[in-house]
Amino acid sequence: MFALIAVLMGVDTVIDYRQSGSFVAQTFEMLVFAAALAGIGIHAWQLASARSRSEQLGRELTETRADAQRFSREAQDVLKGLGVAIDGQFDKWGLSPAERDIALLQLKGLRHKEIAELRQTSERTVRQQALAIYRKAGLSGRTDLAAFFLEDLLLPSVRHPSDASPADAG
To answer: Which of 151, 141, 140, 148 is nearest to 92 (CA)?
Structure first.
């Protein structure tokens, strides 16, 4: 749009100059022509900036996708190992196939009612099977079941030297 205005104003200025137009009119037209050229420059700069930012975002997106895929592969490996460890512990506890299902669903955070709906059984049955799991495992409830498997996964808290109390320093 700015380019069209600049061309038209340029042509009009040349025609007016040849026809000996007034100095004020020619000056005004030259100012409009200069403004149109400035608009072209600004637009070109904005376009180049937007293109540069778009390319940068494209590179960042590619890197982020690669990181996400790498993390996903690593997480899958960890989860497979965790699944094997959980199955091994369920074997040690002697859980039945139904109890295994319920224990896994509890570890995933489902409530008794949700497990019952999913397994198409009564909530009472799920509750009884959960109690059998806790008894066989020597645990007191759902929280202990989750803690049993998560405790070794969580790193010990790392304290910064500046967090030490004066008693720790001595």
So the answer is: 148
